[in-house]
Amino acid sequence: VESQIKELKERILKSRTGLFDLSHYNDIHLICGVVKDFLRSLSESLLTESLWKSFAFIVDEESDLIKQQKIDSLIQQLPKPNRDTLAFIIIHLQRVAASPLCRMPIINLSRTMGPAVIGYSSKHISGIDLVGETYKQTKILEFFLNIPSNYWSQFLEINNNYNISSTPMTKHKIGTPILISEHHYQSTPKITYPAPSSTFFSPI
């Protein structure tokens, strides 16, 4: 499987036709493996070495409002490629979490995808630091996944076809915290996926 992951990743990276056509790849584990391998091969995590520890420190804030405001400030400081890639991945994982077919709630996705999506503060950590940062990865990704998707979609400049109501949502109407008190975000929409014909669909 590892050799297949490496081979597919190289084909995608060397593609000259823009978006690589994955329609004939039916193994979701292979595709997820490629995504994880690509993220781990980056010179630094999407959160960058300079900001990683700031994210890790803030996620332990007791006040949700302070945490939300500081996290937003850090996200705005990320390089655009990092921020946009992170936003795209978060929106996709939110769709996975919303699908009853995937059976992957946010906490499970955070544990499974944290090492790849959030990464580590450095390529050279080990021992007790490695254990501590693995725990932080889960907490950071879980917090990101609980930020409503229309916060993340603002970075992607794409049309959202989820038929989200334009009526502002208050904090009492949503299950996730409002990122900044001046903004009103809507809850992550429920996505209906077609049932697979035979095999069980898993995002990981």
Write a brief caption for the model:
The chain has 204 residues and is mostly helical.
Q: Largest beta sheet, briefly?
A: none
Low-confidence segments = 159-204
Name the overall outline.
globular
Number of strands: 0
Give the helix level as a range of percent: 40-55%
Instruction: Round the Cα radius of gyration to an integer and report it.
Output: 18 Å
List keywords for this structure.
204 residues; mainly alpha; Phosphatidylinositol 3-kinase, Chain A; 2 domains; 50% helix; globular; disordered C terminus
Describe this entry's structure for a reader:
This protein has 204 residues and is an all-alpha fold. The protein folds into 2 domains: 1-41, no CATH class; 45-204, Phosphatidylinositol 3-kinase, Chain A (Orthogonal Bundle), CATH 1.10.555. It has helices at residues 2-13, 28-41, 52-58, 64-77, 80-98, 106-117, 127-145, 149-153. Helix 6 (106-117) packs across helix 7. It is globular, with a radius of gyration of 18 Å.
